[in-house]
Amino acid sequence: MATVLGSMDSSIEWNEAESNSLADGNPYIGPDAVLKGVFTKLGENHEYFELQDVKIHGMEDDMVLATLRYDGKVKATGKTYNAQAAHLWKLSDEGKITSFQQYVDTKKLAEAEK
């Protein structure tokens, strides 16, 4: 976790996908906000949460696209999901992450939470 947070610019702007239950804090500004509003909640709400089949696609203008799958199990319901996702990252000249936009199958996430 320290490595991930350390790769973020101090003023990172992080956005969860619209209709994702974690989008209530959009935009999360700064690594501490991302830790408390996203990563801590994921840990609290999931028996497990894993990123699978991560593929990185280089882009222009300091943008990077990652396609992947989320594999998780929600503690409250016991339901599992495997959802297609994409992450769009913007990097500074120093290589720090300055922005993040998540795209995900929010229907699968919502169904697992009910």
TrEMBL record:
Matches recorded under SUPFAM superfamilies: NTF2-like
Family annotation (PANTHER family): BLR2505 PROTEIN
Designated name of the protein: Nuclear transport factor 2 family protein
Originating species: Christiangramia oceanisediminis
